[in-house]
Automatic annotation (TrEMBL):
Keyword tags: Disulfide bond, Signal, Zymogen
PROSITE patterns the UniProt entry points to: THIOL_PROTEASE_CYS, THIOL_PROTEASE_HIS
Cathepsin propeptide inhibitor domain: residues covered: 33-90
GO MF term list: cysteine-type peptidase activity
One Pfam family per UniProt: Inhibitor_I29
First and last residue of the signal peptide: 1-22
Stretches that traverse the bilayer: none
Name of the protein: Peptidase C1A papain C-terminal domain-containing protein
GO annotation, biological process: proteolysis
Matches recorded under SMART domains: Inhibitor_I29, Pept_C1
Keyword Disulfide bond: yes
UniProt keyword annotation of Cytoplasm present: no
InterPro entries named among the record's database cross-references: Papain-like_cys_pep_sf (IPR038765), Pept_cys_AS (IPR000169), Pept_his_AS (IPR025660), Peptidase_C1A (IPR013128), Peptidase_C1A_C (IPR000668), Peptidase_C1A_papain-like (IPR039417), Prot_inhib_I29 (IPR013201)
């Protein structure tokens, strides 16, 4: 009886402090969930799926809110359509990089070690800023980056990032910026990779051996069900000699200066990258290179005076709605 009386006494007090409909932590998350479902036209089939998706969303939302509450952070996060996806769904559609088998000790044609093939970096002569997106921001005076693409639900980051590097190399070498076909790489690479994932080396080896058509002649579909439609008479770009490096920022900078945009492997399956909104990413996902699951293209570097931070500029393949118009600074 005493317990019942206590509950009855508390209810009016709680009603006075927090009237029905007031926004507490739970209500804020539920309101964000409702807005998220409306924004991305999300529906669930039953109560079980609703609970599962809400649980996934809640974890993403909490991580984003906690990070953004830190005013000292150099970057911010935001919600994207994959906030209620499982890790498997994310890996299948937003990543797709299969671990490389290349090592500096086992390189063979057409590969060569970048260290030794590219002139050593002279820190005194290297520019403090480099951006291959703009002709006035690099030593060659050419724009070498095409508009950001979206890989959709196809795990083809390996093809997108490699295609962007091929575009950059062609622009730097020939002073002509061509939008090359990513779909050709997905459909035609000799290793048989597709939307279920692939390697950077397979993509670049196709570019080196067979060349690429333009995306106008071989348009992007984000599917890998169609047979290869390669037409050698429409090839507009190819490259001889492929350079490889591991874990060296000095070599990366030298390659950017000498060759142009560089394809690289990173870890993307953490909140800092998946939900990146803008600024300079300063947090590490993990110290394990075994977890490199996503391919991107490094298109420049710079220095932010306000944050007192150096950064790399990367081009992603998740559309212009992600990050800083499809790019990130790391």
């Amino acid at each position: 009886a005493a317990a019942a009386a206590l509950v009855l006494l508390l209810l009016p007090l709680l009603a006075a402090v927090a009237p029905a409909g007031a926004a507490g932590p739970g209500n804020a998350t539920e309101e964000a969930w409702a807005a998220f479902k409306e924004r991305f036209n999300r529906t669930t089939q039953n109560a079980t799926e609703e609970a599962t998706r809400f649980g996934l969303f809640n974890a993403s939302y909490a991580a984003i809110e906690a990070h953004n509450a830190n005013a000292a952070s150099a970057f911010t996060l935001q919600l994207y359509e994959w906030a209620d996806w499982t890790a498997e769904e994310l890996a299948a559609s937003r990543a797709g990089l299969v671990p490389s088998t290349l090592t500096l000790e086992t390189l063979s044609e057409p590969w060569a070690a970048a260290n030794g093939s590219v002139p050593p970096l002279d820190p005194e002569e290297a520019p403090t800023q480099l951006d291959w997106r703009c002709s006035y921001s690099n030593p060659k005076g050419v724009a070498a980056v095409t508009p950001v693409k979206d890989q959709g639900s196809c795990g083809s980051c390996w093809a997108h990032a490699s295609g962007a590097a091929a575009e950059g190399r062609t622009a730097v070498a020939d002073s002509v910026l061509l939008d090359l076909s990513v779909q050709e790489i997905v459909d035609c690479n000799n290793a048989g990779w597709g939307c279920a994932g692939g390697t950077i080396e397979a993509a670049l080896q196709w570019f080196s051996s067979s060349g690429l058509e333009t995306s106008f002649d071989y348009p992007l579909t984000n599917k890998d069900l169609a047979p290869c439609q390669y037409n050698v008479t429409q090839v507009v770009a190819s490259g001889e000699g492929l350079l490889f490096s591991q874990y060296s920022e000095e070599v990366l900078m030298a390659m950017l200066l000498e060759v142009g945009p560089v394809v690289a492997a990173i870890q993307a399956d953490c909140a800092y990258f998946m939900y990146y909104d803008g600024g300079i990413i300063t947090e590490d996902c993990t110290d394990s290179c075994a977890l490199l699951d996503h391919a991107i293209t490094v298109v420049g570097y710079g220095y932010d005076e306000d944050e007192d931070l150096d950064y790399w500029i990367i081009k992603n393949s998740w559309g212009t709605g992600w990050g800083e118009d499809g790019y990130a600074r790391i």
